[in-house]
Amino acid sequence: MEDQINSLLNSQINIEEFNNNNNSNNNNEEEDKPIVKIYDSDKQNLMDRINSGEFMKIQAPMVRFSRLPFRMLVKKWGCDITYTPMIMAAEFNRSEAARDSDFTINKLDEPLIVQFGVNNAEELVSAAEKVKDYCQGIDINCGCPQRWVMKEGFGANLLLHPERIYDMVKQINNRVPIPISIKIRVQSDLKDTIELAKRAERIGVSWITVHGRTSAMKSSHPVDYDAIKLVKDNVTLPVFANGDVFTLSQSNEIREKTGVNGVMSARGLLTNPALFQGYDKTPIECIKDFINIYSEYGGLHPVIFHRHLMYMLYEYHNKNEKSEFNKLSTISGIMDYINDKFLF
Ligand SMILES: Cc1cc2nc3c(=O)[nH]c(=O)nc-3n(C[C@H](O)[C@H](O)[C@H](O)COP(=O)(O)O)c2cc1C
Which residues form the active site (predicted)? Predict the structure, then answer.
């Protein structure tokens, strides 16, 4: 099933086709100083929860998908923390239109972490200033392996230039009162990953999320939980494990195996937003909730709304039904199909 979901995810989303009727400073020599940060109450509350040992269930950042309606849904169905999709900081700083389109929030979506695609401290500080009053933390994407992202010096490219990460974290800690986390992938030489985690801890990263695959590995490649455990064993700051969390029992196994402070799921939550409540497939009630949230708040392109439902209904459909549902091209057609089939 995971392979099929991967191929669905990798297939192009052609929005046109849809009938839509409806600078980095090198601070290498600078000493790392211990960081004591005081936050406002909602940010402090999140840090207190994480540091108290509460096991956190987290929805991963997902470009196009982890937008407000989906975040509200997964919060209702068991996620403790949600992440925005990666937001390109430079664009976000420059364009009001980008800010309006990329950043929609509400009170039901707390605690929220805003993830940025960024490679220098000035852009990050500027973007963080803009969102700091509307979220509980910011995160630097240090794991995206896509070619264009690597070329721009964002995502996993930062793992090759860790000084850039350290500089961004230091500048945030000096200038913006907000928790700052990093989401990394394991590297082929785990010594580099451990070194990065230790240094990140010294300069005041609030937590680290570790995706247990290297940048070269496909999402079908098994996750290296031993590597995640190694990171956890080498630092005292909170570590979240990411990769292949499709069920609550997998989440519990990862917790036992690695000792991490929480788990983060991407594809698992796409196919079953209720997984952290122990459901094996998306409950119909959850699908109803998604439709109601979408109807009330909008905030998703119809193509993405349709995609979400494809994933959530995956386990309910045989091959022909999948094909029938996937061909629908209007919101009214989608709603009629679901009404007829799932007896609203
Ligand atoms: C559709 C999709 C979009 C993604 N977008 C992002 C993103 O914006 N930022 C990020 O750090 N990772 C992104 N990822 C990677 C996931 O956050 C996660 O690290 C990866 O899918 C492994 O988790 P999983 O095995 O639970 O899917 C994305 C993954 C998917 C499937």
Answer: 144
